[in-house]
Design a protein that fits this description.
47% of the residues lie in helices and 10% in strands. By secondary structure, the protein is α+β, with helices and mostly antiparallel strands. The chain has three domains: 5-32 and 163-213, no CATH class; 37-156, Immunoglobulin-like, CATH 2.60.40; 240-369 and 382-585, no CATH class.
C-alpha cells in the first residue's frame, strides 16, 4: 500500500495550527488580566472604562484663571475640523482636573483654547498607547504669566497591543519550518523505507518472503499507486489558483475582523490598508481566468453565443447570491425590498465578469494549444492584436473621468473626491464621494446603498455611501481587463517563461509609474489619490502594479521553478465561490465565532479570526481531496 505523504503532512500541519491557535487564545486570555478600568486615583468617584484602541487622559489646570476647552484631531483625518474633547474649569486656589478618553489608533493633535478670548493656549502632538494612563499638565510659564506650557507625562504605561501579532507570526513560522522539515525528511529514502516498514508490516513481510523465494505470497502482491504529483506543464496554471486563494484568504481574515486592528480594516478614505488590497486582486485574477478559459473553449470549437449564455447565467447567479444571501443590510434587522442594498461585492463581481467576458467574446482571437517555443514576438504585439478592446477600455475610463470631474453635483464642488463630513474643514458635509455618491443616490436611492461606510468613523459623515457603487464598477472592469491582459500574455508567450516574466515586470513598473504621477507619491495631495471607496484610477493602477508583481513571483515559484506547490492557498483558490459565500453565511456561528472571555483583547479577537480563516483553508483542502468543487 502507498502512503499519501503530502496529505498526511498537511493534515498534521493543520492539527498543529489548531493547537497553536489554542495556545494563542490561552495566552490572550491570560494576558487580558490587565484591567481595562483605569481610575485617576482619588480624583474620580467611578473608574473610567476603556475599550480597545483607547487611553485615559487627565488634564490638570494649574493656577490658570481661565476656563479652557481641549480640542482634538486625528492625523488620519485630512483637513478636518477640531473636535471637542473636554472642558476644564478654572484652577482657583487648587488644581482643576478633568478626564477624557482618547483614541490610540493614530497620533492626535490636542489644541487648548481659552473660552473667554478664544485664544489658543497651546498645541501638542502625541501618540497615545492602548490602555495607557496619561496626564496633561497645563500651567503658566514662570517667565511670563501670559505664556502657557503643556506637558504630557505617563502615569501608567500602555500595553503592547502588537504582541499577539508577533506571537501569531512566530506560530505560523514554526508551522512552516516543521512542514518544510517534514517534506525534506520524507524525500530521504532511509526515512521513507523506515516509515513503510512501521506503517505497513504486511507489505514488508511480503517483500521479505519474496526475497526468500516463497511462492505462497504472490497473491498478496499489490500494485502500488503512483503518488499524486503536480508540475508546471499541467494545462491548469497552478499559480493562478494560488494567487486567487491568497487574495481570498486575506479577504476572509479581514472580513472576520482582523483582530480588531485598524490596519486590518478598510481605510477611512484615502490611502491603503491590508484590507484594501484583496478585492482588486480577486478582480484582477478573475480577468486572467476569463482570458484562459474562454480561449480554451473557443479553441475547442465552442459557439460564442453559447458561451455568452453561460457567462450571462453565471453573472445572474452571482448577482442574486450577493443580493439575497449575503446582503449587508441584513444587520439592520428584517430585510424588506424597501431597504435592501442593491450593490455589493458579488454584485460588482457579476457585472465586471459579464462586461469583461462580453468584451473578450467580441474580439477574442484563438491561439493553438501548442505554439513554437523559438518563435520571435514583436514588441507590444500582444497589445496591438487586441487594439479594439483597448480602445473600448480607454473610452470607458474616459467616461469615469468625465463623470467624476465634470458632472455637476448639487451643493457640492464639481470634481469633488473628498469624504464630506468634517473633512475639508467641514465645508461639504453632505458631499461624500462627490459624483460617485450622487449617482448612486439618484439611481439606486439612499435606502438601497451601504448605510455605514468607513468614512463615518473618522470623518463623521452622516450620508450613506456605497464603496461598491455604480461609478466605481467602471474601474473594476478596467482592473479585470488588466488581469485579462495578463492572461493574454500567458497564452501568447506560452512556454516562454522569460518573456512572460519580463512582461509581467514591465506592466508592474508601468502601472507603478502611472500611480506615482497621479498621486504625486502622497496620500492626499495627488491629482487622483488612491481611494478604495471611490475605486479611483490611481487605486486601480497601484493595485495592478502589486498584482502583476505578485503574479510574477507566484508564477515563477509555482509554475516555472516548482519551488512551491502553492499550498495552502491553492486549495481555497480552487473553491473560491464556496469559501467566500460560506464564510459570509456562517460568520456568526461556532467555531468561526464564540463568546469571548475578554472582548477588549486584541489577542482573543486575533485568535478567533485566525482560527476561523484556518478552518476554511482546512475545509477547502478536504473538498479538494474529495474532488468537490462548487462552480456556478
Amino acid at each position: 500500500m502507498g502512503l499519501a505523504w503530502p496529505s498526511c503532512t498537511i493534515v498534521s500541519c493543520f492539527f498543529s495550527l489548531g493547537s497553536a491557535l489554542s495556545l494563542i487564545l490561552l495566552a490572550s486570555c491570560t494576558n487580558s488580566s490587565i484591567s481595562t478600568e483605569l481610575q485617576a486615583e482619588h480624583l474620580f468617584r467611578k473608574p473610567v472604562l476603556l475599550k480597545m484602541d483607547q487611553a485615559l487622559l487627565q488634564i490638570h489646570n494649574v493656577f490658570l484663571s481661565e476656563r479652557f476647552i481641549v480640542y482634538w484631531r486625528s492625523d488620519q483625518c485630512y483637513q478636518c475640523l477640531y473636535q471637542t474633547l473636554v472642558g476644564v474649569d478654572t484652577a482657583g486656589a487648587n488644581v482643576s482636573v478633568a478626564a477624557a478618553v482618547v483614541d490610540t489608533r493614530h497620533a492626535l493633535t490636542l489644541q487648548l483654547n481659552d473660552t473667554s478670548t478664544k485664544r489658543e493656549l497651546c498645541r501638542i502632538h502625541y501618540s497615545f498607547g492602548e490602555f495607557g494612563n496619561y496626564s496633561l499638565w497645563v500651567k503658566n510659564n514662570q517667565s511670563s504669566s501670559k505664556e502657557v506650557t503643556c506637558q504630557i507625562i505617563i502615569n501608567k504605561g500602555p500595553i503592547n497591543s502588537y504582541l499577539p501579532i508577533l506571537l501569531a507570526l512566530a506560530t505560523y513560522m514554526a508551522i512552516i519550518i516543521v512542514v518544510s522539515l517534514g517534506f525534506f525528511l520524507l524525500r530521504l529514502d532511509a526515512v521513507r523505507n523506515w516509515l513503510c516498514k512501521k506503517m505497513n508490516p504486511i507489505e514488508t513481510d511480503r517483500l521479505i518472503n519474496s526475497e526468500l523465494g516463497s511462492p505462497n505470497r504472490e497473491d498478496l502482491s499489490i500494485q502500488e499507486p503512483q503518488p499524486r504529483t503536480w508540475n508546471s506543464s499541467a494545462p491548469r496554471l497552478r499559480s493562478l489558483d494560488t494567487f486567487r486563494g491568497f487574495a481570498l484568504i486575506i479577504m476572509v481574515f479581514v472580513n472576520y475582523g482582523g483582530g480588531s486592528y485598524w490596519f486590518f480594516k478598510h481605510q477611512s478614505w484615502n490611502g491603503l490598508t491590508l484590507a484594501d488590497l484583496v478585492f482588486p486582486w480577486f478582480v484582477f485574477i478573475m480577468g486572467t481566468s476569463i482570458s484562459l478559459s474562454l480561449n480554451s473553449m473557443l479553441r475547442k470549437g465552442g459557439s460564442r453565443w453559447k458561451l455568452f449564455g453561460k457567462v450571462l447565467w453565471r453573472s445572474i447567479q452571482l448577482f442574486l447570491i450577493g443580493l439575497f444571501v449575503i446582503n449587508e443590510n441584513y444587520c439592520l434587522g428584517p430585510l424588506s425590498w424597501g431597504d435592501v442594498r442593491i450593490m455589493g461585492v458579488l454584485q460588482r463581481l457579476s457585472l465586471t465578469y459579464l462586461l469583461v467576458s462580453v468584451l473578450e467574446l467580441l474580439f477574442a482571437k484563438t491561439f493553438p494549444e501548442t505554439l513554437p517555443e523559438n518563435r520571435t514576438c514583436v514588441l507590444l504585439q500582444d497589445i496591438v492584436v487586441f487594439w479594439p478592446q483597448w480602445i473600448l477600455i480607454l473610452a470607458l475610463e474616459a467616461v469615469w473621468l468625465c463623470l467624476t470631474f465634470l458632472l455637476p453635483v448639487p451643493d457640492c464642488p464639481t470634481g469633488y473626491l473628498g469624504p464630506g463630513g468634517i473633512g475639508d474643514y467641514g465645508k461639504y458635509p453632505n458631499c461624500t464621494g462627490g459624483a460617485a455618491g450622487y449617482i448612486d443616490q439618484s439611481i439606486l436611492g439612499k435606502e438601497h446603498i451601504y448605510q455605514h461606510p468607513t468614512s463615518n468613523v473618522v470623518y463623521k459623515t452622516t450620508v450613506p455611501y456605497d464603496p461598491e457603487g455604480i461609478l466605481g464598477t467602471i474601474n473594476s472592469v478596467v482592473m479585470a481587463f488588466l488581469g485579462l491582459q495578463a492572461g493574454k500574455i500567458l497564452i501568447f508567450y506560452k512556454n516562454q517563461h522569460k518573456q512572460v516574466i519580463v512582461r509581467f515586470f514591465t506592466w508592474s513598473v508601468l502601472m507603478g509609474v502611472v500611480s506615482a504621477i497621479l498621486t504625486k507619491c502622497s496620500q492626499n495631495e495627488g491629482f487622483i489619490p488612491v481611494n478604495k471607496n471611490l475605486w479611483s484610477l490611481s487605486y486601480v493602477t497601484t493595485l495592478s502594479c502589486f498584482a502583476f508583481f505578485l503574479l510574477l513571483l507566484t508564477y515563477y515559484l509555482v509554475d516555472v521553478q516548482s519551488l512551491w506547490s502553492g499550498a495552502p492557498f491553492y486549495y481555497p483558490g480552487m473553491n473560491s465561490i464556496l469559501v467566500y459565500v460560506g464564510h459570509e453565511v456562517f460568520a456568526n456561528y461556532f467555531p468561526f465565532k464564540w463568546k469571548m472571555h475578554d472582548s477588549q483583547s486584541h489577542g482573543e479577537h486575533l485568535a478567533q479570526c485566525l482560527l476561523g480563516t484556518s478552518i476554511w483553508v482546512l475545509i477547502s483542502y478536504i473538498l479538494y481531496r474529495k474532488r468537490i468543487f462548487w462552480k456556478i
